[in-house]
Amino acid sequence: MNLLLRAIADAGSDDPEAVRQALGAITDFEGVTGKLGYAPGEQIPRKAVSLLEITEGQPRFVEQIVPAEIPAP
Question: Which residues on neighbouring strands pair with residue 35, listed in sequence order?
Fold first, then answer.
């Protein structure tokens, strides 16, 4: 929600096209689960994803990645 509010503020309007363009220009939004942003010209958010493995009930950090693309469902 706050990301959308920032885009509206950055756009200076709630016009859908202006908000879409403003969203695409955000590169440094600090959200509840960490920082996210958009690469220039792309509509895929750059957001780190933490991968954990749980063995015998114990979580273990595996890696943190930023997906280059969102796969189709």
Answer: 30
What distance in Å separates the CA atoms of residue 64 and residue 1, rounded to the nearest whole number? 24
Q: Is residue 24 part of a domain?
A: yes
CB 16 within 8 A of CB 22: no
Report pTM. Answer: 0.62
Q: Tell which residue, 47, 41, 52, 53, has the closest CA to residue 67.
A: 47
pLDDT tens string 10-63:
999 999 999 989 988 998 898 877 788 887 777 777 777 788 899 999 999 998
Instruction: Tell me the residue length of the chain.
Output: 73
Q: Please list the alpha-helical segments (H only) found in the chain.
A: 2-11, 16-25
Domain that residue 34 falls in: 2-65
